[in-house]
């Protein structure tokens, strides 16, 4: 009887190890909760440069271009004029641009926005909660979100005018 009990214990131990290994592997190799294309976009509640708190709910029913950036990020700075040009082009067609600055103080961001001539809403992610929710690592990162709230495309890196225009055209055509 002792040998059969020991065999059962070994089988149970092996089962626990296999299941534990599977859980760890899927956790490490999976998305780690990071949103991906086709997922519902995470919500946000952030202070805007206008002094008001803004939420993603304000833009419900609109296609969105959500750009995570910083003034210290050279590609972010280089793509900002293209983002502004596209924001101007698409503003009357139901596409909302939102810039989310990551971790910088309001004065630095305001000075940059004024200098570059950015007019679309800029939010401040001072404590980096949104960057965690959206799973941002390199910047700039831009989320193209359909009017139903689903992530259409995630673009990591600098966007140029043509790529932006193509992505937004595709976004605007989605049902």
From TrEMBL:
Coiled-coil residue spans: none
Keywords: Cytochrome c-type biogenesis, Disulfide bond, Isomerase, Redox-active center, Signal-anchor, Transmembrane
Taxonomic lineage from the root: Bacteria, Bacillati, Bacillota, Bacilli, Bacillales
Chief localization: other
Listed InterPro entries: AhpC/TSA, Thioredoxin-like_sf, Thioredoxin_CS, Thioredoxin_domain, Thioredoxin_ResA/DsbE_sf
Subcellular location field: Cell envelope
Protein name: Thiol-disulfide isomerase/thioredoxin
GO molecular function, one term: antioxidant activity
Alphabetical GO biological process terms: cytochrome complex assembly
Domain Thioredoxin: 35-173
Any one cellular-component term (Gene Ontology): cell envelope
SUPFAM superfamilies: Thioredoxin-like
Entry keyword annotation includes Cytoplasm: no
Gene3D superfamilies the record matches: Glutaredoxin
Lineage top rank: taxon: Bacteria
């Amino acid at each position: 009887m002792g040998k059969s009990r020991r065999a059962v214990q070994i089988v149970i131990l092996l089962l626990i190890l296999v299941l534990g290994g599977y859980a760890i592997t899927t956790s490490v190799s999976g998305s780690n909760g990071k949103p991906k294309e086709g997922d519902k976009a995470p919500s946000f509640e952030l202070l805007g440069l206008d002094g008001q708190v803004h939420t993603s709910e304000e833009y419900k029913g609109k296609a969105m271009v959500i750009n995570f950036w910083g003034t210290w990020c050279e590609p972010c700075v280089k793509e900002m004029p293209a983002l502004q040009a596209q924001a101007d082009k698409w503003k009357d067609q139901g596409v909302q641009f939102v810039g989310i600055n990551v971790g910088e103080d309001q004065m630095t961001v305001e000075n940059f926005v004024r200098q570059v001539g950015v007019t679309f809403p800029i939010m401040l992610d001072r404590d980096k909660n949104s960057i965690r929710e959206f799973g941002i690592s390199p910047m700039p990162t831009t989320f193209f979100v359909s009017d139903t709230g689903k992530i259409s495309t995630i673009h990591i890196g600098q966007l140029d005018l043509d790529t932006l225009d193509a992505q937004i055209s595709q976004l605007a055509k989605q049902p």
